[in-house]
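User: I'm new to structure prediction. If I give you an amino acid sequence, what do you actually give back? Let's try with this one:
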Amino acid sequence: QVQLVESGGGVVQPGGSLRLSCVVSGVTFIKRTVSWVRQAPGKGLEWMCSINNLDGNSTYSDAAKGRFIVSSVNAKNTVYLQMNNLNPKDTGMYYCQTAALRGQGTQVTVSS
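Assistant: Good question. You get back a string of structure tokens that encode the predicted 3D arrangement of the chain. For your 112 residues, that looks like this:
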């Protein structure tokens, strides 16, 4: 059974940083591309970035580029999202996903 479990969300002030984690189980992790998506209050899902665990290549949306860094540790079946210079527009529920599967999400709130 495939499971994705996110953690690391919280409340942070504008300009602050957070690191999210996503533990993936039930799949061959190294063969998977894992993405981070988010959903702001009242809005749809927004793709932020993806990482190919086989070759380490990553891609970013314009909103994430330059501020967010995605990485993975294959030995831990874990994908990380380092988020820097956060602003209130980054508030939302953050999910990791692979193929059509998504975790339960972790809430990120950026507020002074």
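You can read the tokens as a compact description of the fold. Here is one thing that stands out. The first strand starts at residue 3 and ends at 7.
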